[in-house]
């Protein structure tokens, strides 16, 4: 997470220095794209990184029953922005998100490393609907907050598979889930485009786990709920 933040600050600083020179912090900087935000509708695209995790709630003996190891995934998508008023916009950001989480189980019934480890590879199509609250623009910089809801379609859910963890390496999840999202970012105005790095937290609202066919399965028997937690870092270009 610290590396992600460092990348944002470094990239923002390098781009700002290259494009703005020293005028960005001066009293009277050269104003780029002065009327860009007055458009009723504008479009863009984003590239970025993600870090997905799970939040587990257990039926009995709460504790470190499952260890989830996060990996860094990749995001790409489109941005549609509708101006509602001077400091408020409505945004639709459909995107494709690749990620993987490695789950290690501590159940004593699982003896081998193969039995203890489940690799959860996911390809998501993510549909967030967000409100963007922008501060007053200062020169060529404008910070903002984001918040809203989203629906996610898991293309690798294995929801229709009959085999489960006990009969094979088959981790099953629900196809659709709902989330709420909160984040912040900054708009940087260049001569020919607007660049917006942002960071956003995603919090699942629904249990996503499909239980194994055996009630007391060491993989799913003690899980009350399993919900997504994720961090998105996106670099948006308009």
From TrEMBL:
Residues covered by the Outer membrane protein beta-barrel domain: 39-208
Domain of life of the native organism: Bacteria
Keyword terms, alphabetized: Signal
Span of the signal peptide: 1-20
InterPro entries: Beta-barrel_OMP_2, OMP/PagP_B-barrel
Family annotation (Pfam families): OMP_b-brl_2 (PF13568)
Name listed for the protein in its UniProt record: PorT protein
Organism from which the protein derives: Flavobacterium akiainvivens
